[in-house]
Known about the structure:
Order of helices and strands: HHHHHHHHHHHHHHHH
CATH class: Mainly Alpha
Largest sheet: none
Structural class: mainly alpha
Number of helices: 16
Number of strands: 0
Distance between the termini: 17 Å
Shape: globular
Amino acid sequence: MHAVKQLFTRYKMLALLIAVALIWLFFSWQTEGGFVTPRNLSNLLRQMSITGILACGMVLVIIAGEIDLSVGSQLGLLGGVAAILDVTYHVPLPITLLAVAAGGLLIGLINGYLSAYRGIPSFIVGLGGMLAFRGVLLGLTGGVTVAPVSPELVYLGQGYLPPVVGSVLGVLLFAVAVVLTWRQRSKRKTLGLALAPLWRDVLRVVVIGVVLVAFIQTLNRYDGIPVPVLILLVLLGVFSYITSQTVFGRRIYAVGSNLEATRLSGINVQAIKLGIFGLMGVMCALAGLVNTARLAAGSPSAGTMGELDAIAACFIGGTSMRGGSGTVYGALLGALVIASLDNGMSMLDVDSYWQMIVKGSILVLAVWVDVSTRTSRR
C-alpha cells in the first residue's frame, strides 16, 4: 500500500495514464476489440469533450479553493438559449456564439461577485444557481425539446476535420512540443538551474510524437478529428499556458494555497476569484453550444449531473480538494477516465445503477488518494 501511495505522490500523471490503459485493455478484452475501433474511439473522445470543456474551467475554480455546483444547469440553460436563437429566431451563427458566450460570462461574473465580494460561500451560490438556472431553462423551453438546429451549428458538435488538415495539425503540435522543450532547457540553463538529462527530454518528445501519430492515424481511419475534440485541444493549450506562464495563473495557485498570505502580499484576491468564475461561465457557454450541436437540439434536461462529472474529472486528475494544486491536463485525463467508463459499460450493457456506483467509488478513491498522499508528506 505504501508503494502505491508513493507512486501516486511522485508520478500522478503516469499512474493516471496507466489507469486509462488498464481500463481500455479491460473493455477491449470484454468487447473483443470493439472498444478500441476507430469509430468507437472517435465517439468516446466526442463524448469526453463536453466534460473536458467544463473541467478546464472547473479545475481553476477548485485550485482557487472554491466550487461551482451550477455548471451543469448553466450548460443546459446556455445550450437552450443557443437552440432558441437558432431555431426560433434564426439568428446567424456568429451572433448566436457571441450572445451565448456573453451570457455565460455574465452568469459567471455574477456567481463570482456573490462569492468573492458578498461573502456568500461558493457552494451555496452554486447550489442556488443549479436550481435557478434549471428553472429558467424549463421556463424558456416550456419543458420541450427545441429542434432541429441549423446545419452550421450542428457542425460544432458533429463535424470532422479533413484527414489532411488533421495530419497537418499533428505535425504542428509535435513542432510546438519540440520548441517548448527546447525553450524550457534553454531558460533553465540561462538561469543556472539544474537540467534534466537530455535523454529524458528526448524520450518525452518521442513519446509525444508516437502518441500524436497514433491519435491522428486512428481518427483519420474513421472520419477525421471531431470538431469538439479540436476545440478541447485548443482549450488545453490555452489553459495550460494561463496556469503555467501567466501572472494570473500563478496567483490562482497562490489564492488556493494560502488565501490570507496572498491577500496580505497585496494581491487582489477578490478580482482573481471574479476572473476565475467568469472563465467558468464562458466554458459553460462553450460546452452548452457543443452539447446542443451534438444533439442537434436544445433539451430541457441537458447538463443534468454535468457538474458532478466535471468535479469528478478534476479530482480523479489529481486536483486537490483543498485547493492550491492541480493541472488542466490532469483534469482532462480524469474526464477521459469518466468517458471511458461510461462508454465501456454502455457497450457491455451494464445497468445504469452499476455505472453510478462505479463512478462514485472511483471519485471517493481519488479523493482518498489525495488525502493519503498529502498526509504521508507531512
